[in-house]
Input
Amino acid sequence: MVSGTGVNSIVSNFEVTVEKLVYGGDGLARLDGRVVLAPYVLPGERIRAEVEREKPGLVRARTLEVMEPATGRVEARCPVFGRCGGCHYQHAEYGQQVTAKAAILAEELRRVGKMEPPAEIGTIAGSPWGYRNRVQLHVDGGKLGYRQARSHRLCEVAACPIASPKINESIETLNGMLRDPRWPRMVRTLELFTDERQVQLNVLETDRPVAKRFFAWCGERITGLVDGVLDYEGRFRVSRNSFFQVNRFLADRLVEAAVEAAEGETAFDLYAGVGLFATALARKFQHVTAVESGSGAARDLQYNAERAGLGNIHVEQRTVEEFLQETERSADFVLLDPPRAGLGKAVVRRLGELGPKQVAIVACDPATLARDLGGMVAAGYAVERMTMIDLFPQTYHVETVAALKRS
Output
C-alpha cells in the first residue's frame, strides 16, 4: 500500500484498462473511483502500472507492462523514447495520433470552453519524421541531449528522428566538439535553427558570457553556420530570439488554413512575429497592420515586408493589449497567433468591443483556445470552421486554426 498521502491509497502495483488519451500525452483509466493517468499507452490497452504520485481523485502512474496491446501500437523509432521527454506518441501509428489529437481538441472545447465543437474538425498532416527545424539542446557532464521525461536530468542523444537532417548533422558535430578541450564548460543550453541550407546557433543558457572565438570555432565545424541572422529559404529574415514555426513541411499550409476565407479591405495580424501571416495577408488586403512586441522580430518583419515589395504592411512594435486598447477602428479581418498562454480576458473583451467581421485564432494549446473561444462566443461570434494542423507529430502538442464570424 502507498501511505502518507493523506488520502485512501491504492495498491502500488495494479492493472487497469485505458479508456482514452488526454491532453498532456497520458492515457486515462479508472481505479477505485479515481482517475489514473499513465504515459505511453493507447486506448483499449490493459496495462500494469505503479503509483508515482497520488492526490484526491487522481493517481499519476508509471507504465510497467502493456499486457494487452491495442491495434495501432508500433515499435518506437527512437532508442531513447520513453526516457526522453520530447516525444509522447512514437508507440502509436501516425494516423491514430492525428485522430486522437482531434478528439482531444473536441474534449477540451467541451470541458474548458463549455461549447460543442464543430460537427467536423478538419485535419492537416505532413511527414511525421524529420520535420523540426528548431531544437533546444542541454549540456551536462560533457554530454549533449534533451531533458528526461518529467525530470531535469539529461537524456543524451546522438540523433533525433523528428529533427531535420541538418539539425542531426549539427548534433553529430556538436557531440564531437564536446570532447575537445576548447569546448566552454559554462554553456548549459543551446538552440539550433535551420532551413536545411543555413544553421543558426544560439546560446540560451550559460554561466558567463561565451567568447566570440567559440562561435568562430563553430563556424569552422558546422556547415552553413550563419552569424546571427538566418534568411529562411530566402523568404524570411529570422534573427536570434525571433519566433518562427518549427515544422518545416507545414508552415505554408498553416498560413493557408488561417487566411483562406479572409476577405475585406483591412486586416490586423496580432502577435505577428517575423511576418509569416502578415505577408500572406498583404496579398489579399489593401492595408495590413502587423503588431509585434519583440524589437528583433519587429525589425525582421519590417525587412521581410520591404523585401517582398509589400508596402501595404504597417508595423507596430507594441503589445497586442496596448494596440487594441488605443486603436479606435477595427479591421475587416483579425488574425491572432498568441503564445501558449492564449489571448486572455482583456484581449477577448476588447475584440468583442471592436467587433471585426472575421477572426482567425491560431492556437498551440487547446485548453487556452477553448477558454478564449468561450469568451468570443459570449461576445457574439460563431465558430465557422476549425482545423487541426499537426505541426508536432510524435508529441501531444496540438496546433489549431479556429475561424470565427460575427453573428
